Amino acid sequence: MLEQPNVTFDLPELDADPVSEAGVVLMGLDARRLLAVLGTATLTAQPCTAVLLVDKAWHQGVVHIPFDEAVAAGAAQWRKHRAALAAADDGVPRSGGPREAWVRMYGTAVRALGERMAPTELTCLAVGWYRREELDEVTHGL
Description:
Elements: H1 18-26, H2 31-45, H3 47-60, H4 67-88, H5 98-113, H6 119-130, H7 132-140
Helix pairs in contact: 1-6, 2-4, 2-6, 4-5, 4-6, 4-7, 5-6, 6-7
């Protein structure tokens, strides 16, 4: 007789680190959406760009960042930091469990890039390292 798989859903711990929880959520995005989040984080992390976006919102009441531009900005960041992530990788095979994988990939991102960048960018790059084959495929055509 075949055993039935365990399909219960585990809620996160109440005291779980918010960055880790965000990382686990980002792991569920497709590659283009992940790159768009990274691109948006990158665009808004730059002081001059943030000022321009706020000025546009002030005068026009809304800010639009076209999806393809956000993806392109994320792809540029991915290409910029991929080699550093590869150099910092510990070579341990990736886990299939998202929370376990998150801890390892975030550690790789911190070793590669330090904590010198905005948390959203670091989080996206950590998830990107877990899903590097997909991001490489998507960014290859951009």
